[in-house]
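Sample 3 of the quickstart, ligand BIS(adenosine)-5'-tetraphosphate:
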Amino acid sequence: MLNIILFGPPGSGKGTQSDLIIEKFGLTHISTGNILREEVKNETELGLLAKDIMSRGELVSDEIMIGMIKNKLQELGDVKGVIFDGFPRTKPQAEALDNLLKEYNTEISVLISLEVPEDELMIRLLNRAKLEGRSDDNEDTIKNRIQEYKNKTAAVADYYEEKGKLKTIHGVGSIDEIFTQISEILS
Ligand code: B4P
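Result:
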């Protein structure tokens, strides 16, 4: 199985590149951001809890996120591989994911980290705010999201680097150029 973590700060292109990877490599997409937004839209118990946390740009608790991934993996059935988009976002989430995958006799193949400077992240997300109106795409929340990334999420790349599974990509340029670099790694 080819199991990929697509990694990077908010606005680095994870969601964008995931769509292209799925189409070319036939992988199954698990985006924790998309799952949470769906829960918020449907006003479920989890959605009501996550709504304020997300609009402040903070991370939802590890306990909830790990439970969510556990359920998703149980539903999967027979797949070629999984692309984890936006998960893991903390070291405890990474450790839990590795343990869960062991239960399915599989593991993470590679973590692809999209590196994009902060000013570019801000430009992209403010632009998306105009197009999609996402409640967490405003200047103050974006600053918090980037800070959360530095404080809690960046360590996930170090964790997989120690296991020899980190690949870094310069995430500035056209969407196609970046996808070409990702494809080369996956092929
Ligand atoms: P996510 O949905 O994962 O949101 P994100 O980090 O902002 O990335 P996204 O995938 O949407 O954006 P992309 O870079 O593709 O998370 C949202 C929130 O959910 C988190 O803040 C947190 O509260 C919560 N959450 C999710 N997972 C969690 C977890 N595991 N633990 C705890 N909490 C969790 O694209 C951004 C924009 O850039 C797009 O408009 C795109 O068109 C543009 N773009 C992409 N590539 C480009 C390029 N090459 N050039 C120019 N623009 C580009």
